[in-house]
Design goal:
The protein is of the alpha+beta class and 357 residues long.
Length: 357
Amino acid sequence: MPRSIWSGAISFGLVTVPIHVVGATEDHSIRFHRYHLADQGRIRTRKVCELEDREVGSDEIGKGYELATSQIVPITDEDLRELPLPTARAIEIVAFVPLASVDPIRIGDGYYLQPDGQVAAKPYKLLRQALARSSKVAVARYAWSGRERLGLLRVRGEAIVLHAMRWPDEIRDPSSLTPPPVEVSEEEIEGALALMDTMTRDDLEGDEFRDTYTEAVAELIEAKREHRRPETVPEPEERPGQVLDLMAALQQSVSKAKESRGEDDHAEGDHAEVRELPGRKKKAPAGKTPGAGAAAKKPAGGRATGEKPTGGRATGGKATSKKAAPKKETSKSTAGKKTAAKEPAGKKATTRRPRSA
């Protein structure tokens, strides 16, 4: 059973519930000590008086507020206990609010409130059942460790939990951290929602929520104690480079999430599909058809793309002819040679072959 951190009472209206405060969480982190590398001697932090240059014990140490370098105002624990605060010995409930109205950034560590004896059993149960039925949480004020705090009381099972809360002025304004204005399309939002659907869980149980770092450190310590090599860790998969297409990244993420959960990516009735936006087709300039320049360009040593070997029949309104083998021509034939003429629109153009010698 964890030890009591604080004793007092919960008060709301004229109802008082005597309680003990005990820790609701445990820290399982592995902690290390500092030691001297040469002989493995412990290195400790010692409390030394700066004026006398000697180590002092806890019974010689007190609190104080420094007004100036040479002026200290001593404050004792008894001074703090006698402060005229109604919250000095009580957790005073000041309001009941919906949990959704409390920003989670203000919620801190949690503590169980344990009823103090039989006299506290009934009012404790009354408050717990009232909180559970109202679906609300209580906001309270209390004073611990020399300062007044704000707290949140909620129900967990059969117990009441107190969460420390931060005061409004302790929360920094995030406006200076927000990104510059950008446009996000409706399709991209739908894609993100589809990814959220595939990653939705009913609870936080499973290997994904296990502290693998602490387990790995424990295995490392055990391996060194047994003078053996620790287990090797498989190399992580290489992450692809930066994805500039947000829709493609969402689509890949949805597919990967389904695959990890053993779902068929093309299962019937599955509405978590993300589709890429269709690209806009570019309009061709007026009077031109797509590919006209490429069709007109004739590769060296061959016929133009799209040309039919019709032996002189025109294609696309322009005369074309087969490549004839080079022949010797007389001056007469040369003088009478004519090039193929372009016919008016609507008539077929023909070509004359050179007369053989």
